[in-house]
Amino acid sequence: MTKIELLPESQASESTQELYGAIKSQMGKVPNVYQVYGHSSAALKANLQLGETLSGGELSKKEIEIVSLVVSQGNGCEYCLAAHSMLGGMNGMSDDEMIGVRKGIHINEKEQALISFAKAVYENKGRISQEVLSNFLATGYTNGAAVEVIGQIALNTFNNYTNNLAGTPVDFPEPKAF
Q1: Coil, strand, or helix at residue 116?
Q2: Among candidates 142, 88, 136, 140, which has minimal Cα distance to 114?
Q3: What is the DSSP letter of 170?
Q4: Sign of torsion, CA 130 136 140 145?
Q5: Helix (H, G, I), strand (E, B) or coil at 54
Q6: Which pLDDT score is estimated for 177?
Q7: Cα 55 → chain centroid
Q8: Per residue in 142-164, pLDDT tens?
Q9: Residue 132, H or E segment
Q10: Runs of H (alpha helix) within 28-108
């Protein structure tokens, strides 16, 4: 059930309409999540800027989607699981890999360290053991990547909570079930 209605461009403020235009030029449409954020152009702008800034960091697009799937699974956000499953597929992940990520497992040692690290940070609100951090760093990640994972957790939690609160209608393909 939708609790916060989508804000169509015709009813949006001028600043939100400008942001919608930028989104449409990149994505071909304004996804429903952004039409929820559209009620606050400040929240929409913050979300877009944080995502854009973090996408220019050390983590690859695939690694960003791994963190997104871990957090979205943990927060039970059906909208974000669908969106990030689509994006994961666009960034080289198979359905089986994405299911593994959502279950917290992966065959590749480095990506398993990323999953374990992101899950530990998310579940323990940043209070992780030195062993978890050391395992993450031992696979080739840096302290900078660790901080970026925290940024991705924050961004995804922002999106998950917004979608869960709003009851945002999913406008992406349904992810493969497990």
Answers
A1: helix
A2: 136
A3: P
A4: negative
A5: helix
A6: 87
A7: 11
A8: 999 999 999 999 999 999 999 99
A9: helix 130-138
A10: 32-37, 41-55, 61-74, 78-90, 95-103
Which residue type sits at 3?
K
Torsion sign over Cα 117, 123, 125, 127 = negative
∠ Cα 27 49 163 (to 5°): 70
Q: Are 89 and 95 in contact (CB under 8 A)?
A: yes
Q: CA distances (Å), 128 to each of 78, 120, 156, in order?
A: 27, 6, 19
98-147 pLDDT, tens digit per residue, is: 999 999 998 799 999 999 999 999 999 999 999 999 999 999 999 999 99
Going by C-alpha positions, the residue among 102, 127, 108 that lies closest to residue 60 is 108
Residues in the chain: 178
Both tokens of 149, joined, read 């994972």
pLDDT, position 107: 79
How far from 135 is each of 112, 116, 149, CA to CA, in Å? Answer: 10, 9, 15
Which band of pLDDT confidence, cut at 50, 70 and 90, is reported for residue 97? very high
Q: How far is Cα 69 from Cα 79, in angstroms, rounded to an integer?
A: 11
